[in-house]
Amino acid sequence: MYYRVIVNKFNSGFEQALATKNFGRVESCHNDSYNANEAVTKAKRGRHCFDDFAVIYTEEKLKKGECYPDLVYQLHSDNNRKHCIELCSRVLAGLAEGKDLSKFDYIVSHPVDEFGQDVSYDDWMAKFTCEAQLLLEERDKAEQEKARLVAQEKSNIKSFERDSEEITYSFPAVAGIQAGREFFIAQVPFKYLVKFFSFVDESLPAEDRAQRKVNEKHGNDIAEYITNNPSEYVLPSITVSVDKAMTFDAAVIAGSASRLGILRISCDATILINDGQHRRFGINIALKNSKGLENETIPVTFFYDEGLKRSQQIFADINSNLSKPSKAISSLYDSRNEFNNFVIDLIKNIPVGKYIDLENTSVNAKSPFLWSLVHFKKFIEALSGFKEKAFNKTGVDLMDQMVLKKSVNIIFDVLCSGEDSEFASLLNGDLKPADLRNGYISGYAVFLESLGLALASAIEVSSVLSGEFDELQFRSFVCKMAGVERYLNSDCWQNRCVRAERLVKNNDSVNLTAAVFRREGDLQLTEKMIEIENRYGFNFSV
Q1: Which residues span the domain enclosing 85?
Q2: Which DSSP category does 188 fall into?
Q3: Which of 123, 177, 197, 321 has the CA that lies 20 to 30 A from 138?
Q4: What is the enclosing helix (H) or strand (E) of 183?
Q5: Cα(177)–Cα(205) distance, integer angstroms
């Protein structure tokens, strides 16, 4: 039954309320809350009504006119407790999002319990955290159920009814919500991935597919990556669409909000890959080479099938919003690449190393750097005669590596010495990188690569007589080349690497610039350099 009772001085404290004598007196009884609240409203509108009223519910039979202060007090404390739990849930949710406690000063500055007693923040949290956590979990469950219904409504799946007898394959999974739709992330063993997960028919025209055609070379590269690094490889998740209803058996785990569990998918479902077909292709090849990989797993994101347009949009969204790292930072972080390691070590030991951008591929006009890591790698390739792939594949013996290290150190020791050196001014702080670029070709990648190409011959010449690297002879070559004017407006660079007052870097400009350095060092030009010079009208006797 619902009862209308007097609650005068309800908020003034229990003792003061009791002093009113009629506190908790039953004024009327009702079969439902609506009529009870209507009676409260009418009583308050009474012309001579000075009492305050509330509605309480109890299964006990109460007598009209009798006072039941304990029941009213219980109502009061229950309401307060609900309020404390709600406030505590806000604090927990905020802390989970990484917010600072100062954001909740209005809640935690003067915490009180359900009885209106002042308590410490720690005691307040200890008292209400469990129930607040349960409240958050119930809300999460409600959001997940809402997302499930949205996914069901938007999918192409006609029936979501579970057939308990249906044969399924199962994966440990996490349920989530994106764009208001339910989805699942599961750990799928490689052996199931290649068996059940399908490619789109590549014979279809592009507009009728939700994926690009498989590039077998890319897939083989992934397979090689896996097999060559069996204890270190990392593969990002695959995204798929499923054309049958999925069943999620939530695990009963405190604090999980029923989002951890087992995902079950019918064995006759079509699982179409929206993103990750090359990973699937590569995994298939790797499994043929190594059966021990069968139980390795890859994370897979499962969405309900919503048709071709939705699948195409998933592919477009994933790939258009990816930010591919620069070649420079990829090189910096790739410790398996021996060439990268070698180059990074060189940079650390030269005076201008701090002016090489290790993160970006190119260097803009206002950059605090001279060259990028990519430019410096091109310089080492030109100087050594080894391409990066060859360096990593066949290796370079320690003697050749030592020669390269000595050569690089000598080159930058010479370039950074002398009163007229722009590099010395840079290191002294008298010249900024941007100013150096404005006045000298040495502030550009074309200078670096062409100098490496020119000095490659000097390394050979300095080693040919004794069979050992002659550092003094090599230094003399570098000093001769360093004597060439490096001003942008110098005549020697016009139509070579400077055209129409602009720096040009391509294969021709690198060879044309290297030819100038080689002549200054009394070194023979390559046939390619001679051919390019003739083509551009630079006719010299050889």
Answers
A1: 78-139
A2: E
A3: 123
A4: strand 181-189
A5: 32
